[in-house]
Predict the structure of Glycosyltransferase family 9 protein.
Amino acid sequence: MRILFITSTRLGDAVLSTGLLDVLLARYPHARFTIACGPVAAGLFAAMPRRERTIVVTKQKYDLHWLALWRACVGTRWDLCVDLRGSAVTLVLAARRRAIMRGGRRQGARIAHLGQVLGLSPPPLPVMWMGAADRTLARTMLPDGPRWLALAPTANWAGKVWPADRFIALAHALRARWPDMRPVILYGPGETERRMAEPVLAALPDAVDAGGGLALPQVAALLARCAGFVGNDSGLMHLSAAVGTPTLGLFGPSRMSEYGPVGRRARGIAAPGPEGQAPIAGLAVAPVVAAAVDLLGLDAPVPAPLMDVPA
């Protein structure tokens, strides 16, 4: 059995879609999967079980990337095509069944819209696949002993970025309550992201710089070793929630009701004002500290070391 799964170009949306894949893996234990996604999200699926291939969809003029995807898929007879982009591609492929996400922006959580594609209510929680080598690297970078706190001070546009000095104040406030805490600074690849993270790195000299160069399963393994995560609305926030790390997402003009972090120990906090309009600079340090203390449980014991699992 072969399943084609077309998901997002954006990391956060792709993370949210992984719960659907997890359901399909369990429902069809002998199926082989082809994933179609954007370049930023491709690494999410590197350790996914029964993944036959990943087709990286790179945007082209005149929507020619859809033609390229069709050419890559037309030679296969698919048992199921799941298209979360709402494109016409799967309609012109040989497929026994199709599940296509329709409609643009809707009210409510994005995760619920995704669940509706397969008729799942409540929708499945996101997951993340990683191998033994990823966990070994994470233990090397974040050894047992300190309580590691992941901070993600960057985002893909300036309106989402909580000021760097507030991340620094947050780290100092949490360390006053949690003396064995050490920060782990995460950010995406590229010079722009590095520049956004630099003030936080400079002010927290004992922080682990974990940004820029790691594969997504390696980042996920690092997050799984952290006692908590505080960061801007970003793909890293969604990745943290997916691995089960207590996750606090910070929101300004982006919609927390639609894109809040999804997980068993995940929540968001938004700047005061109308949703979708409030500047993130309006989010003060004190309420973030209070939310982090409540979520992270700073009096809880250090999490047990992770065990290796097969790749």
Notes: The chain has two domains: 2-117, 132-296. The CA atoms of residues 191 and 311 lie 31 Å apart. Residues 299-311 have pLDDT under 50 and may be disordered.
